[in-house]
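Slides due. Your pick:
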Amino acid sequence: MTLLKDSSGRKVDVPSNFKKIISLNPSITETICLLGLEDKLKGVSAFCRRPESVEKIRKIGSYSTYNENIVQEINPDIIMTISGYQEELTRKLSEKFNVFQLELPSTPFGILDMIMRVGTIFDQRQASMELVHHLQEHMPKLPVNKMKRAYLEIDLGGPVSFGSLSYITSTLNYFGLETPFDREKKEWLTPDYSFIENFDPEIMIFEGKMYRGTNIDETKNRIKDTPLGRTTAFRDSNIFCTPGKLDFFAHHGPSFFSEVMPWLREIMIKINI
């Protein structure tokens, strides 16, 4: 056993040999699989959907709940969670089980750091380093000459946008997109559409609810009679909806680099023509 301090400040016993892992965070689950440890995963959350092969792994809970009987039956060596929205879940689990909480990334570089930390915990340092090197290829390399105004909204049971403490805002900034909440020292917030109208975004990006998704026609119809319908982005039809029905920007695992960044790069090419 090795004692490692997690993001909550607790010292956690990390085994030297893992046989049974539970991951209740989709991003950590994806990372564990890409590091070649999927066979060690004995339980995941209902929202762990990447890679597709995790569908066959036993579901023991959600973002904030878990089935204690199943966890006890699995008797895991360690349970992986993340800070922020899973902190209360971590507290409850840690009363009876060995739980390690990683820090919720606040920048795309934080996602890479998370991957390296997972690699360190599970003795896959070299594999995590190789994965990080590969993912970095999707980062834009050219300097941004002029920022464009952008608004991004995700349906998390209602419209949600993001402040300066979110990896989403940081990534948009890195791609040359200024957001209305760049100075808000928050991870997320409920947007005021009148405030967004005054900001007047030149581009708007929408992500639908998990398992449902959305499309441009549906989104335009929803916002046309709101202040968002009076923005430059709406008038110029610079409205984009993320592909598929799974979390896209809301997922902060390795595929944020391999899926989200290439998609965002294509958007930037379109609006800069």
